[in-house]
Amino acid sequence: MANRHVAIDGPVASGKTVAARALAASLGHLYLDTGAMYRGAAYLALHFGVDLDNERAILALLEHHRIRLVPDESASAGYRVEIDGVDTGTRLFDPEVSSAVSTVAALPGVRNAMVAEQRAIAEEGPVVMAGRDIGTVVLPDARFKFYLTASVEERADRRAKEFAERGLDVSIDEVREQIEERDRLDRNRAVAPLRAAGDAVVIDSTALQAGDVLLRMRAIIDAAS
Ligand code: DC
Description:
The chain is of the alpha/beta class. It has helices spanning 16-27, 34-47, 55-64, 95-105, 108-124, 134-138, 152-165, 172-188, 210-224; strands spanning 6-9, 30-33, 67-71, 79-83, 86-87, 127-131, 144-149, 201-204. Residues 12, 34-35, 38-39, 101-102, 105, 131-134, 182, 186 line the site of 2'-deoxycytidine-5'-monophosphate.
């Protein structure tokens, strides 16, 4: 079967997870949010009190604990993350995990383990995969590649609204600082830094609704199909 994978990369709150989920549903592909896998690793490190840069200890945790993304339309993200069979609910999206995740995701051994798993999932069938290095590293041969961007103000606004909806009290300045810090770490790490693949279509979603982003992606995919 010809490769029908779609890679969607972009910085924090650029709209990629919403777009990826909707696109996967419209194409009938599996949706995989790779950020949730790195969040699972960061959550394990925090839970077991392991230093965030202790690669060996974190790899040992990943060997002994199973992080699994289970498609679930009743969950707000469209999937639930189970660790050792237990639903993590919204805990992986708590501010503590968000602050820790970029450090854990910069560890080369952790990335190797995650990338191997992501590629194994893509072997099973067509997938819309969202992340930071999907078009550049994980699926460099993906049939379609998109890179979403948006202004930092717009992204902070979106993330602050999500926190407010969950009843979390985080100021917009705090949210913006956290986003800028994660962008800096994700863009400057040595292994698989965040960047657009040379052959990715860049979509600036600052002034777009989620539905418009989906329409643009579908137009490109349909024109090539
Ligand atoms: O998409 P997200 O914000 O849930 O991702 C959480 C973190 O995981 C992000 O700060 C960087 C990292 N990440 C990564 O390094 N590579 C990916 N493919 C996906 C996420």
